[in-house]
Amino acid sequence: MKRIKNSFEHVFIVSHLIKWTLFVIPVSISVGTLVAWFLWLLDRAINFRFAHPWLLWLLPIAGVGIHFLYKYSGKNAEAGNNLIMDEIHEPGGGVPARMAPLVIIATIVTHLFGGSAGREGTAVQVGGSLANFFARQFKLTREDLRMLLTTGVAAGFGAVFGTPITGAIFALEVLALGRIKHDALLPCFIASFLADITCGAWGIHHTQYHILFESVEKTYFNYVHFDLILLIKVIIAGILFGLAGFAFAESAHTIKNYSNKWIKQKWMIPIIGGLIIIALTYIIGTQDYLSLGVTNPNKNGISIISSFHAGGATYFSWFWKLLFTAITLGMGFKGGEVTPLFFIGAALGNTLGVIMGAPIDLMAGLGFIAVFAGATNTPIACTFMGVELFGGANIIYYAIASFTAYYFSGHSGIYHAQRVAVSKV
Amino acid sequence: MKRIKNSFEHVFIVSHLIKWTLFVIPVSISVGTLVAWFLWLLDRAINFRFAHPWLLWLLPIAGVGIHFLYKYSGKNAEAGNNLIMDEIHEPGGGVPARMAPLVIIATIVTHLFGGSAGREGTAVQVGGSLANFFARQFKLTREDLRMLLTTGVAAGFGAVFGTPITGAIFALEVLALGRIKHDALLPCFIASFLADITCGAWGIHHTQYHILFESVEKTYFNYVHFDLILLIKVIIAGILFGLAGFAFAESAHTIKNYSNKWIKQKWMIPIIGGLIIIALTYIIGTQDYLSLGVTNPNKNGISIISSFHAGGATYFSWFWKLLFTAITLGMGFKGGEVTPLFFIGAALGNTLGVIMGAPIDLMAGLGFIAVFAGATNTPIACTFMGVELFGGANIIYYAIASFTAYYFSGHSGIYHAQRVAVSKV
How many other CB atoms are there within 10 angstroms of residue A3's CB atom? Predict the structure, then answer.
């Protein structure tokens, strides 16, 4: 009898996987395609602004445009990533199909006029919205809809950063703080992997980051074979990365709440936000903290890439990027949070590397993944991200920094729809 | 008010981490030390048997010895890993301190006389038993006892294979099928890391495995930049690795159940088991499938290491190792299941590499982690293990093989105390 049950079990597993592979193929190919177009457009917009810096003066007006765009055609799409997470937890009104074009337009506009934002939020919303669209076509059950939405998140994330494993684990880990459920493991991975391949097929190349540091075996107290000094530095950095993630999440929430409370005319919020960004840019005298920040047209400018080299960030670069992004996203502009979190982390890592005398490229890479791990509460996905982006040689440090940052970022995080499944203490 | 709550939150987190670091230090240092001694003794026993192959004739008598050792001084220690998992799920009578010395002695005896077994089970039982001992000294609450036991499992696993990240994730992932809970994430990682460092400080070196294969970018249909042919081969292999994990778990359970049902005199079970092992060894004419199998004194012999090279395994090596181990562990001998699973996987990978014309070292490495992923239902831990043992270059294949094997191994697994948290279908 048991043997028969076991045989049936494999039949169920095979049919489950065939079913999900078939569901996931259209979702991931269309998400990968749309993300590829989005990344291409974004690159155009960023380079256009590099060539025409005066566009920044139009940021307040661009913000008003985004405001009315969402007001008159957005419905509930404005809730963005949080709406998708809520729908996965408890399917309700669905994720509207219009979310995809709206968020792409709004993100491109934000970047074109110099708002400091990212791109993962956009990709995830494209993923969620297309997954919801296909789920309706397939007439899926409630339970299957939740699963397909999760694969949409994985596809968007995997495609936008070129990190398929991280995309799958992120989608499973971000839903509830302190837990990974494996129910959608292979469907999410297939989605993330196919979306990444599709995005690559459209000719999109992802930025290459390099950590050249290689740990040399050191011996302490005659017997302990591990670089204990570097270990201590990485733990201290991990704590600060977690606190930076916490500070970012708190600032973004606080700015959003107070803007909505104090500024009665909603369309005034992006105008004031845009004006603050312009003022800050002229006060600190650099455009380095505008837009995406992965690269910088100015050879001596600060960017994520520059933060991997000595002298590539100032002591306050991380703080400025945090402030610019919290204002941009908290005051009505669109885009993701993750690339700015990479910037904040890499710049803070650079600074900590200088202060503590640790390898700059390693510390920048650790900050890159760990601030993100803290702010989104996804330490395991971020450890994988370290391997996918920087190679596996320093995985022990990725884990130390990400796990430590996870604990020190508290329970808030940037997504208020993230449920607390398992408390950190 | 919220700000105050947040400040308190960080105070709780810091005090939580300080408390757990202090609890974990004695556990992990003593587990690391005992595991180091165990590995040293094991190495001695294995080499002694290599020099004295006639020891195999005494295997049945050794088995009777182990039987009576557990019968007269074992109490509930015989339940081994399953007892520890049950105690973590629902603390009851506790894990007896005697479990550690008993399992070390029984494992060494098993290997000395040629039983086919592993070492992770032993290390995990040492970890659980020492953690339980310290928990009693510290007079921990029920909830804290569960957590310390989990860190004991992580410490044992991390130390025995020299893979700290895998140790921590394994301990969290193995408890319940289909779920990772982050509650003990950092304590488990600290435990696993410290135990590994401690084990290294005693002079223990772990076997180095090498995958020299590097994927070359291939282009299909003009646009798709991924080696699709290798991808298909890895998926097929992943399915077979999962089925091998399933076959191992089923065989071990079946042999155990039928021996207990058919052989009325319990002490006769290891005698018959020992005799079958001796008979099989002489029928197939090689001692390659006895004991641990990581290395082989015979230059042309089959081992885990040899499976990474062309000609290093025969088409049925994986089957023989599966059979030898299922009989050894199902009929009263002691030791872990994991190193034999590595052997089964590496040998099967070697064979599949030959049959399908895929890189032998890559396929052996994938089998190494994926059969284990399937049999223990720990796909995420095993993907990390790939990176920790073989480097990060082929992580995408580790994930494909481990995740696929996880689905195809069904719901049984080698630990019957593993609960099903999230079904695979």
Answer: 9
Q: Could you say which residues from 210 to 229 on chain B have a Cβ atom under 8 Å away from some Cβ of chain A?
A: 223-226
Residues 6+ positions from A395 with CB-CB distance below 8 Å: A383, A386, A387, B165, B384, B387, B388, B392
**Cα pseudo-dihedral B3, B4, B10, B15, rounded to 10:** 180
The dihedral over CA atoms of B417, B242, B210, B302, expressed in degrees to the nearest 10, equals 90
- CB contact A413 to B (< 8 Å): no
Backbone angles phi, psi at B420, to 5 degrees: -90, 105
Identify the residue among A5, A10, A182 best suited for mutation to test binding to B, counting B beta carbons within 10 A and taking the highest: A182
- Among residues B246, B267, B245, B264, the alpha carbon closest in space to that of B349 is found at B245
pLDDT in tens, B365-414: 999 999 999 999 999 999 999 999 999 999 999 999 999 999 999 887 89
Topology of domain A2-201 in CATH is Clc chloride channel (1.10.3080)
Whether A157 contacts A388, CB under 8 Å: no
Note whether A119 and A38 are within 8 A (CB). Answer: yes
Q: Is the dihedral of CA B131, A423, A81, A84 positive or negative?
A: positive
pLDDT 10s digits, B216-236: 777 787 778 888 999 999 999
Q: Is the dihedral of CA B52, B57, B58, B60 positive or negative?
A: positive
**Model confidence at B122, in pLDDT bands (50, 70, 90)?**
very high
Query: What are the angstrom distances between the C-alpha of A417 and each of A176, A273, A316, A369?
Result: 9, 24, 31, 22
Q: Does B406 touch chain A (CB under 8 A)?
A: yes
Structure tokens at A348: 């803070």
Q: Between chains, do B387 and A392 touch, taking CB under 8 Å as contact?
A: yes
Strand partners for A176: A419
Distance from C-alpha of B335 to C-alpha of B38, rounded to nearest angstrom? 11
Considering only CB atoms, A226 lies closest to which of B197, B393, B412, namely B197
Query: Which 3 state secondary structure label does DSSP give A175?
Result: coil
Find chain A residues with C-beta within 8 A of B240's C-beta.
none
How much is the pLDDT for B76?
82
Q: Which helix (H) or strand (E) holds B181?
A: strand B179-181
Q: Where in chain B is the domain with CATH 1.10.3080.10?
A: 2-201, 219-420
Integer Cα distance of A399 and B205 in angstroms: 22
List of chain B residues whose C-beta atoms are within 8 Å of the C-beta of residue A380: 169, 180, 182, 380
Q: Which CATH code fits A219-420?
A: 1.10.3080.10
Among residues B249, B294, B290, the alpha carbon closest in space to that of B389 is found at B294
Do the Cβ atoms of A201 and B193 come within 8 Å? Answer: no
Tokens of residue A344, six digits: 């904040």
Nearest CA in chain A to B424: A183
CA A75 to chain CA mean position, Å: 24
Q: Backbone dihedral region of B297: left (phi > 0), alpha (psi from -120 to 50 degrees) or beta?
A: alpha
A155 closest CA partner among A43, A37, A44, A26 = A26
- Does B396 contact A at CB distance below 8 Å? yes
Of A337, A334, A391, A260, nearest in space to A79 by CA: A334
What ipTM score was computed for the predicted complex, to two decimals?
Answer: 0.94
The residue of chain A nearest to residue B409, with distances taken between CA atoms, is A10
Asked if the Cβ–Cβ distance from A395 to B225 is below 8 Å, we say no
Pairing of strands A176-177, A419-420: parallel
HSE-CB of B388 using CA atoms within 13 angstroms: 28
In angstroms, the separation between the Cα of residue A349 and the nearest Cα of chain B is 21
| Contact (CB<8Å) B410/A223 | no
Query: Which has the closest alpha carbon to A182: A371, A385, A380, A387?
Result: A380
Residue located via tokens 């294969």: B213
Report in angstroms the alpha-carbon separations of A369 from A256, B64, B318.
25, 54, 39
Q: Quickly count: other Cβ atoms within 10 Å of residue A57's Cβ.
A: 12
